[in-house]
Amino acid sequence: MHRTSFGVAGLDAAERYAAAPAALSGFVVLQLMVYAALQVPVGVLLDRFGARRMVVAGGLTMAAGQLLLAVSTGLPLAVAARVLVGVGDAFTFISVLSVVTAWFPARRVPMMTQLTGLIGQLGQVLSAIPLAALLHGPGWTTAFVSAAALGVAFAVAVLAVVRDRPPGAPEPPPAPGPREVVRGLVCSWREPGTRLGFWTHMGTQFAGMVFALLWGVPYLVAGQGMSTGEASALLTVLVAVGLVAGPVFGEFTARHPLRRSSLVLTVIGATVLVWTVVLLIPPPAPRWLLFVLVVVLALGGPGSMIGFDYARTFNPQHRRGAAVGIVNVGGFAASLVVAFAVGVVLGATGDGGYSPESFRAAWTVQYGVWALALVGIFVARRRARRKMAAEGVVVPPLREVLARRKRT
């Protein structure tokens, strides 16, 4: 909810702070930059302080950022507020994943990881409906003070009920020193499976993230002629589809661990195809096509979670935290680049930056990131499979598997 709250307020923020598109994208770019930069330090802090303390600290930090945003009237305070949200966000997600790993057996971890991500996506509904209603009713200050209060309430709830590990579970080993941390990061990155997770997270996550986090509502309103209410409602479809797709992806990953990359490539391919069709049609696009666009964007969130499963299965226990942190950087680094690039293109073209044609041009920046991620996936997958073959695990080509099933 905190992460996506600025997405429904994009046009309001542009008016409140008299911000050009590039400046507006800078809010989210800084938020994501802070988030991505803190992934590895947070992994070290997680080993030292435990998930419960990290999640509480993250919740309170995000609440402080929302409160500061509520009272800000100028760009400097507003930017500082979103930086605080990025810091708190960084503290939270990989800490929650460590709780999942500690409390559930390995066979159930892929499904529970998907469900964890989906529960988090429900916060986007809070942004798209009640927060948007407060924003366009009582106003900016009431909306973001309410978000801050909810953040404090959840931090208190975590403090009351969450525990790092089940009763009787062995204590974790001592936190590694700086040299061990650096060595672990290097070893994690050298692992082809970690790089496969990194590129997977990048290729699947950024399109939906940028759409939900900042530019989706402005695009649907100014670029496609929707009302603000219609655009916010359409964003809830993104969450609803994710709620359905997440468990399906989780079960597929658990049952067919050697075919995870096929699912990833399908998600990326569908996203590229539908975005291409939308951008080729002169706006406004048919409502049904925009609905299909949101549906395929929703698949990116569950698809990105497969990247964490690569980190878990290709790394030993003592390196999984570092590997998860590396994977998590992929999607968020791509998201901040695309969010900023869209803002720059909008500011350089069109009528004030928010015309339909400006948005058509701006969204094309995604294709370079998709190309980079796909190359990374194919290269890392080939190296990972080569290493698996040396260990006695051979992954037959998918066409051979399908042909064999057809014959039987």
UniProtKB/TrEMBL annotation:
Pfam families (alphabetical): MFS_1 (PF07690)
SUPFAM superfamilies, per database record: MFS general substrate transporter (SSF103473)
Stored InterPro entries: MFS (IPR011701), MFS_dom (IPR020846), MFS_Efflux_Transporters (IPR050189), MFS_trans_sf (IPR036259)
Gene3D superfamilies, A to Z: MFS general substrate transporter like domains (1.20.1250.20)
Mode of membrane association: Multi-pass membrane protein
Annotated localization: Cell membrane
Domain of life of the organism encoding this protein: Bacteria
Keywords: Cell membrane, Membrane, Transmembrane, Transmembrane helix
PROSITE patterns tied to this protein: MFS
Chain segments annotated as transmembrane: 20-42, 54-77, 83-106, 143-162, 198-221, 233-250, 262-282, 288-311, 323-349, 361-380
Residue span(s) of domain Major facilitator superfamily (MFS) profile: 1-385
UniProt keyword annotation of Cell wall biogenesis/degradation present: no
Name of the protein: MFS transporter
